[in-house]
Design a protein that fits this description.
two-stranded parallel sheet, single chain, mainly alpha, 78% helix
Length: 228
C-alpha cells in the first residue's frame, strides 16, 4: 500500500472507533443514573450536593463519557489491531492476540481493584478524619472527578506486564535486566502511587504502589516464561 492508502486506512479506522465511542456514550447516558448510583456506593453515609446550576448534568456527561469509552474499548482495540495486523510477521501475529486479551483483562482488573480497595480505603480515610468535627457534605462534581480519575489511572497502571512483554518481544530488555533494576522499580512504584492517586492519604498510595510492584515482578516471570 502507498502512503496515501495507509493514511486513508488510518482515517477510516479512527472514524469507526469514534463512531463506537459515540454509540457507547449515548447508551451509557441513557443509564447514567444507575451508573452514578453504582459509583456512589463506596461513599456510604455521605450526602452529595449540587453546588452550581447544571452541575449534575455535566457530571452525567462526564460519567457517560468515561463509561462509553470503557464500553467501546473492545471496538477501539479491534480497529487498532486491524490497522497494524497487515504489517506484522507471522510470529508477531501469533503474539498479538494474547497481548490484546491480556491487556483487556488487566485493565478490567485494575478498575475492579480501584473500586473494591483503593476508593473505599481513600474515602474511609477522609470520612473518619475529622468526622466528629465536620458534616460530610461533598460536591458531586469533585467526588466523581476523584473516582473516575482513580479508576482509569489504576486501569492504566495495570498495563505494566503488557508493556514488559512488548519490550521483551522487541528485544529491548530481557528478564535479567528487569530484575536487576528492582530497586528503581520500587522507588518508581512509590512515586507512581503518589502521582496517580488524586488523594493524599498514605493508605491509597501504598495500595497502588504495592499493586504496581506486584505487577512488575509478575511481568518479569511472564517474560521469563516467554524465554526472554
Amino acid at each position: 500500500m502507498s502512503l496515501f492508502d495507509h493514511l486513508e486506512e488510518l482515517r477510516s479506522r479512527v472514524f469507526y472507533a469514534l463512531i463506537a465511542v459515540f454509540i457507547g456514550v449515548i447508551v451509557c447516558f441513557t443509564f447514567v443514573n444507575k451508573i452514578v448510583a453504582l459509583l456512589e456506593i463506596p461513599a456510604q453515609g455521605v450526602k452529595f450536593l449540587q453546588l452550581a446550576p447544571g452541575e449534575y448534568f455535566f457530571v452525567s456527561i462526564k460519567v457517560a463519557g468515561y463509561s462509553g469509552l470503557l464500553v467501546s474499548s473492545p471496538a477501539i482495540l479491534y480497529q487498532i489491531v486491524r490497522f497494524i495486523l497487515p504489517g506484522l510477521t507471522r510470529k508477531e501475529k501469533r503474539a498479538i492476540a494474547p497481548i490484546v486479551f491480556g491487556s483487556s483483562i488487566l485493565f478490567v482488573l485494575g478498575i475492579v481493584f480501584a473500586y473494591q480497595l483503593l476508593i473505599p480505603a481513600a474515602l474511609n480515610f477522609f470520612i473518619s478524619y475529622g468526622g466528629d468535627v465536620v458534616e460530610q457534605f461533598w460536591s458531586i462534581d469533585r467526588y466523581f472527578e476523584f473516582v473516575l480519575l482513580l479508576l482509569f489511572s489504576t486501569g492504566l497502571a495495570f498495563q505494566i506486564p503488557v508493556i514488559q512483554a512488548l519490550l521483551a518481544l522487541t528485544g529491548i530488555v530481557n528478564s535479567e535486566r528487569m530484575l536487576a533494576g528492582w530497586r528503581y522499580v520500587v522507588l518508581g512504584a512509590v512515586i507512581l502511587g503518589a502521582v496517580l492517586t488524586p488523594s493524599t492519604d498514605p493508605m491509597t498510595q501504598s495500595l497502588l504502589a504495592g499493586a504496581v510492584g506486584i505487577l512488575y515482578f509478575g511481568g518479569i516471570f511472564l517474560v521469563k516464561a516467554m524465554g526472554k
